[in-house]
Specification:
Blueprint (H helix, E strand, L loop, with lengths): L1 E6 L13 H11 L2 E3 L2 E4 L11 H16 L1 H11 L5 E8 L7 E5 L12 H8 L4 E4 L23 E6 L2 E2 L22 H6 L5 E4 L15 E6 L4 H9 L3 E4 L5 E6 L2 E2 L3 E2 L5 E9 L4 E8 L2 E7 L11 E10 L7 E10 L2 E8 L25 E5 L3 E8 L11 E8 L5 E6 L2 E6 H6 L2 E4 L6 E5 L3 E2 H4 E9 L4 E9 L4 E9 L1
Parallel strand pairs: 1-2, 2-4, 3-4, 6-7, 7-9, 14-31
Antiparallel strand pairs: 1-10, 4-5, 5-6, 7-8, 10-11, 11-31, 12-13, 12-15, 15-29, 16-17, 16-30, 18-23, 18-27, 18-28, 19-22, 19-24, 20-23, 21-22, 24-25, 26-27, 30-31
The structure holds zinc ion.
Length: 495
């Protein structure tokens, strides 16, 4: 199975988001393998319109109508965008106070836009081979958090566990909710659904509202599929061979008795062989394997020290800061190595951050997502890119872009890093001791940071062990990196 990266839940100007659909698809193609764009379509139990709710009710209704009026065009554009290099799915979103929000996703280009009261009715009456995905599940019950009492895993086999809203895994999970929709409620978490015995897979997506699918740091999913085709990726989604990441593309392999993540299998033995392999993008903080939500195996990052035989390293170059609120600041970067080889370059690019319309924002910004962030070229000894950044909205909310290069070599491998004309030659050994930062101007400046290099023993881990347990069990894995990036890997269920 191969690993493909995508975003199944994001918004743009086809409803009450911002930015054109064309730019959204261009952005998605530039750094993802697959994507669905989920126009806001309906809210069957929308609050009654009165003086206080007028703004919210009106912008939703206008957005729903906009999607309805242009549905044929949207559907056609999404269908046309599906190619050999980039896979699309048809989708749209249902808000629901009663059921919690869901989006319908299907590979069927004939998906009709119809209005129904529940995710199950919507899916059934669409006539498509589809699923619904529950998202931002952690909100207050009745206030668009998930309603586990009405949950049906046959309709909703995937739960979006993290997005721009935050993380809904559990009461103690990272990224609690701070959107104006309110706090994370401990009754509406992923753990609660698993405790109730439901079987579902984990996905992440951005829920971006300015047309930048896959925007770094907002959530993404990996799907395990045989090939990069619509049918193969669809098979992976339907069978829950998925996991969620908050930002970094952490490579996770996880199996129990040879069954892949998301499997639901009959219980035949009380002995289970658990195997995992993790390749992170920064220092691993911890890897935890849970049986029935109890931790049974912990790999501790503090014990993962560089080894003398290490021959792979990751260098992260992060760009941004400054005081440019609206105007994009351009970056051009390049890494060149001698006596080494560039194995991979991971883009960590962001769009402008918008989560929902506000009364003060202009909605006619079709170009808000015309941001041509790209890896320009990659070869054995060189990688180059361009990206554009705006200032961080607050000191604890980064809006930076980054590129992570994995380099095969030794500590003596020479690395030349050139960012906007600032060039420095150094060695991997030196970068393992210190990273560095530079500013573009004297004050309130855009800046970049070359992070301290990470050695492969610090970002990779694998293990295999046996667990003895009588009775039904499900196993899942969570991975944390020291840079606050996480992966949540779908459970394997024995029943
Ligand atoms: Zn949404």
């Amino acid at each position: 199975m191969n690993r493909y990266w995508g975003d199944l839940h994001n918004h743009c100007g086809i409803t009450y988001g911002y930015g054109s659909l064309k730019h959204a698809l261009d952005r998605a193609k530039s750094h993802l393998d697959f994507c669905a764009v989920t126009g806001h379509a309906m809210w069957p139990d929308i609050p009654e319109r009165n003086e206080e709710t007028a703004f919210v009710v009106d912008f939703h209704r206008r957005g729903f109508q906009k999607l309805y009026d242009h549905w044929e065009e949207v559907r056609h554009t999404i269908a046309e965008a599906n190619t050999e290099d980039f896979i699309t799915f048809q989708a749209y979103e249902m808000h629901s106070s009663l059921y919690g929000d869901h989006h319908i996703v299907t590979p069927d280009d004939s998906l009709p836009l119809i209005y129904r009261d529940s995710p199950a009715q919507l899916l059934h009456d669409s006539g498509c081979d589809g699923i619904t995905v529950a998202h931002h599940i952690g909100y207050t019950p009745g206030y668009r958090g998930i309603n586990w009492d009405l949950y049906d895993p046959a309709v909703t086999p995937l739960i979006e566990v993290c997005s721009k809203h935050g993380c809904g895994m559990s009461e103690t999970a990272p990224y609690p909710y701070y959107h104006n929709m309110g706090p994370r409620d401990s009754r509406c978490t992923v753990y609660e659904g698993l405790k109730r015995g439901f079987h579902f897979g984990f996905v992440g997506s951005t829920d971006h509202h300015a047309g930048y699918p896959g925007s770094y740091g907002d959530g993404k999913l990996a799907v395990l599929a045989e090939s990069k085709t619509r049918s193969a990726i669809w098979d992976g989604l339907k069978n829950r061979r998925t996991y969620a990441v908050t930002g970094d593309r952490i490579k996770c392999d996880f199996s129990v008795d040879g069954h892949l993540m998301g499997s639901i299998v009959p219980l035949t033995s009380p002995r289970h062989q658990i195997s995992y392999r993790v390749e992170g993008c920064a220092n691993i903080d911890k890897i935890v394997i849970y049986r029935n939500l109890n931790p049974i195996h912990i790999a501790e990052g503090l014990t993962m020290m560089p080894k003398s035989e290490d021959n792979r390293y990751k260098i992260r170059i992060e760009m941004g800061w400054g005081n440019n609120e609206q105007e994009l600041f351009p970056w051009k970067g390049r890494i060149r190595v001698s006596d080494g080889q560039i194995l991979e370059a991971e883009p960590c690019f962001r769009g402008r951050s918008v989560l929902a319309p506000s009364a003060s924002q202009d909605v006619s910004q079709d170009n808000i997502n015309e941001i041509d962030n790209r890896i320009l070229s990659i070869s054995d000894d060189s990688v180059s890119w361009q990206c554009f950044t705006v200032k961080n909205p607050s000191p604890v909310q980064p809006q930076t872009c980054a590129v992570i290069a994995e380099i095969q070599g030794s500590r003596d491998t020479v690395v030349e890093i050139e960012i906007n004309g600032h060039c420095r030659r150094t060695s991997i050994g030196e970068l393992c001791r210190y990273g560095y930062s530079e500013h573009m101007k004297p004050y309130h400046s855009q800046a970049y940071k070359v992070h301290t290099a990470v050695s492969c023993s610090q970002y990779t881990a694998e293990n295999s062990f046996t667990d003895e347990w009588e009775g039904p069990a499900f196993y899942h894995m969570e991975v944390a990196q020291t840079n606050q990036q996480w992966a949540f890997v779908s459970p394997i269920f024995f029943e």
